Amino acid sequence: MILYGASGHAKVLIDIAHSIGATIDFIVDDDKTKTELLGFPIVHQMNGNINNLDLVIAIGDNQTRKKIADQINNPINKALIHENARVSIDTRIDEGSVVMSNSVINPSVSIGRHCIINTSAVIEHDSQISDFAHISPGAIITGNVKIGEGTQVGAGATIIPGVEIGKWVTIGAGAVVLKNIPDYAVVVGTPGRIIKFNNSHDE
Ligand SMILES: CC(=O)SCCNC(=O)CCNC(=O)[C@H](O)C(C)(C)COP(=O)(O)OP(=O)(O)OC[C@H]1O[C@@H](n2cnc3c(N)ncnc32)[C@H](O)[C@@H]1OP(=O)(O)O
Question: What is the rounded CA–CA span in Å between residue 41 and residue 141?
Fold first, then answer.
């Protein structure tokens, strides 16, 4: 397996790979000052076609991860799931997504491409997480929730049942979201309130 991006997020992906006995061959990163990460070699450019390699994009920023995924267009990489994650039957997890330790994904959930389900996050039954979303550590997505493309739900935030969150939204750490949220909104507090909007050109 190859990781794309030698970030802190990549360190966690190395740990996930280790937990399931997967081998990291090397890491790709264009920063020439970096030579290794947790003992794994970093190369600064890829030779040849990488579209058929088992590659996971190890970039935490949702917009950047999407840009790289659009360039690579690699359809074969599977989801990377920590051995201590609890993933229920009847759950769909699309390519390139990562599921971290102690997270719980309950039945009839769908998770799109290149999502991050971070440490100890909970995704309850029948919820839908769209491509490039990030559910941060300890966040709780209750039942029948929809999370739009590229949205980040901050650490420890809670989304109550049936709420629909738009695309490229940011939910602040610790927020409790009680109502539907439009595209690009930034939401903080309890109850969650919109304080501004992300720039739609950045998606
Ligand atoms: C493994 C990992 O590390 S995964 C990473 C997980 N990351 C997170 O959970 C981070 C989530 N991000 C946040 O909570 C951020 O504070 C954001 C995105 C909501 C806001 O960030 P910014 O756009 O920089 O806003 P800024 O810091 O200027 O704050 C704007 C206002 O909102 C308030 N505010 C910001 N974040 C929060 C929050 N989480 N809860 C309550 N109020 C908040 C600020 O106090 C400020 O209020 P004021 O105008 O009265 O002074």
Answer: 36
Residue 138's domain spans which residues?
Answer: 80-188
How high is the ipTM of this complex? 0.98
Q: Please report the pLDDT score of residue 72 as a whole number.
A: 80
- State the total domains in the chain: 2
Q: Is the CB of 173 under 6 A from ligand 1?
A: yes
Distances in Å between the alpha carbon of 170 and those of 152, 166, 180, 182, 183?
Answer: 5, 10, 13, 11, 9
Q: Which residues are catalytic?
A: 125
In a domain, 196, yes or no: no
Centre of ligand 1 to C-alpha 157, Å, is 12
For residue 63, what are the contacts with CB-CB under 8 A and spacing of at least 6?
A: 132, 150, 168, 202, 203
pTM: 0.96
SS3 category, 13: helix
| Alpha carbon distance 107, 87 (integer Å) | 8
**176 C-beta closer than 6 A to ligand 1:** no
Please indicate, yes or no, if residue 100 is contained in any of the structural domains.
yes
